Amino acid sequence: MITFMVGVALLIVGYFTYGKFVERVFGVKDARPTPAYVNQDGVDYVPMNTRKNSLIQLLNIAGTGPVFGPILGALYGPVAFIWIVVGCIFAGAVHDYLTGMISIRNKGAHLPALASKFLGGAMKHVVNAFAILLLLLVGTVFVSTPASLIHLLIDGRVAIGFILAAIFIYYIFATLMPVDKIIGRFYPYFGAILLLSSAGVGAMLLFTGAPIPELTLSNLHPDNAPVLPLLFFTITCGALSGFHATQTPIISRTTKAEPQGRKIFYGMMIAEGIIAMIWAAAAMSLFNGPVGLNEILAAGGPGAVVTEVSTLLLGSVAGTLAVIGVIVLPITSGDTAFRSARMIIAEYFSIAQKKVSSRLWIALPLFAISVVFTQIDFNLLWRYFSWANQATAVIALFVGAMYLYIARKNYFIALIPGAFMLVMVITYILNAQIGFGLSWPVAWTGGIIGATVLVVMFFRQGNKQRERNLPLEVDVSDYEEKAS
User: Fold this and answer.
1) Which residues contact 148 (CB under 8 A, 6 or more apart)?
2) What range does the domain containing 118 cover?
3) Disulfide engineering: 112 pairs with which of 128, 387, 465, 480, CB 3.0-4.6 Å?
4) Subcellular localization, per the record (predicted)?
């Protein structure tokens, strides 16, 4: 239990210390107008207050990642706590903060546009296709997982196909409606439910004296479990997730002032890390170790663990509310995944989104493709999602590092975690059966060499951008009076 409590404490301290340091490195400008005012359109660019933006951001980035991922990561034992804490403070929260703030400085631009500007024009097309694929995978995963949880909650009394259809119908409305009509109005309440249910599970773990295992030298590397790099692809949300880079522009377009960014972007990633710690601890302590956890996972997947943990710790009524809180997570991330995909495509083709018809003809094909994706085996879908997720995180971290490199600021805060994860991303896909299936020695060699080459290319591109005197932000001086 000491490992767990120290980990949560470190996350909180990290927000007030390293988060403040990252904010100073970036250099916020209180008086600079934000896209919420400069580009206000009543659909995607709408000023909203910090409380709303923070809770919506938490729901947007969370999904089932900080619940399902840590439950699966619990199979590795307490070493999972290290990745959640270190990854969240030094990688995930930095990733979220920089992508959010750089987007604010560039009219609320999405990752493909930012990659094109800072990493080179060719990257726009690559990252655009990659981001759309990731968002379709996310949207599909976040249709399937809440549907399965609802199916379990009501003991299979309603056909899962009907539940899937209902979720898709909701997603269509949420994707097309102005951001303040559904997302801005209801999601803060859903965010509160999520926080309360997670806090309830965490409090009962402490109150009941659950045997949360401690980190020791003997369990630092569990038997028959190759921690590196597999742990980084098991626990993504809650530590580091490229999906977040696709979500932050939704809120970068509704943020009123730059100083709010640390609470909205860095702070909500820390909150997600705490949620991940709670669910990892619950999965480690309530099922008699990895063997018992494996049995329940084999029987009903992570959804069965969520149901069992919630009812065991909170009772039938409060436990059901906690499960509902977890169901809300993927639903409120799935709809924003499709919304982000719509916005990215509209941005790529320069299609104004004021008219509903313009939003509709972009969104409907996305939903049609996602329906097809639901027919793919979920475990295979999740593996591809996990790799694509971390590959996108690497791209976003390199965008942040390039921005700071051109500005002659401390770019190491993004480059070090970006380069580390680049090695992991290349190594994983070279070894994995969904990739090239090479042996671990060959995969590690390829990962290190590949990452080294790409880091060298990063510096070459950065020097070119410095020579070009690339503007880091969009000039909004003409809009200062409007913003005020």
Assistant:
1) 160, 301, 303
2) 2-393
3) 128
4) Cell membrane
Tell me, what's the pLDDT at 56? 87
For the range 21-25, what are the long-range contacts, defined as Cβ-Cβ under 8 Å and sequence gap of 24 or more?
A: 21/413, 22/93, 22/94, 22/97, 22/98, 22/262, 22/266, 22/413, 23/97, 23/261, 23/262, 23/266, 25/404, 25/409, 25/410, 25/413
* pLDDT of 482: 44
Residue 399 included in any domain: no
Is the pLDDT reported for residue 484 higher than 60? Answer: no
Nearest CA among 62, 177, 98 for reference residue 393: 98
Cα–chain center distance at 208: 31
Q: How many CB atoms lie within 10 A of CB 157?
A: 7
Domain for residue 382, yes or no? yes
Q: Over the range 417-439, which residues count as b (16 or more CB within 10 Å of their CB) and which as e?
A: bbbbbbbbbbbbbbbbeebeebe
* Cα–Cα distance measured from residue 457 to residue 178, given in angstroms and rounded to the nearest whole number: 41
Distance CA 338, CA 23 (A): 30
Instruction: Decide if 459 is inside a domain.
Output: no
φ/ψ of 255, rounded to 5, equals -80, 130
CATH, residue 177: 1.20.1740.10
Residue with tokens 């990493």: 119
Q: Tell me the whole-structure pTM to 2 decimals.
A: 0.89
Q: Three-state SS string across the chain, please?
A: CHHHHHHHHHHHHHHHCHHHHHHHHHCCCCCCCCHHHHCCCCCCCCCECHHHHHHHHHHHHHCCHHHHHHHHHHHHCCHHHHHHHHHHHHHHHHHHHHHHHHHHHCCCCCHHHHHHHHHCCHHHHHHHHHHHHHHHHHHHHHHHHHHHHHHHHCCCCCCHHHHHHHHHHHHHHHHHCCCCCCHHHHHHHHHHHHHHHHHHHHHHHHHCCCCCCCCCCCCCCCCCCCHHHHHHHHCCCCCCCCHHHHHHHHHHCCECCHHHHHHHHHHHHHHHHHHHHHHHHHHHHCCCHHHHHHHHHHHHHHHHHHHHHHHHHHHHHHHHHHHHHHHHHHHHHHHHHHHHHHHHHHHHHCCCCCCHHHHHHHHHHHHHHHHHHCCCCHHHHHHHHHHHHHHHHHHHHHHHHHHHHHCCCCCHHHHHHHHHHHHHHHHHHHHCCCCCCCCHHHHHHHHHHHHHHHHHHHHHHHHHHHHHCCCCCCCCHHHHHHHC
- Asked if the structure places residue 428 within a domain, the reply is no
Q: What is the mean pLDDT of the chain?
A: 88
Predicted confidence band of residue 481 (pLDDT cuts 50, 70, 90): very low
- Which two structure tokens, joined as six digits, stand for 478? 């003409």
Q: What amino acid is encoded at 151 in this protein?
A: H
Lowest mean pLDDT across 146-155, 196-205, 207-216? 146-155
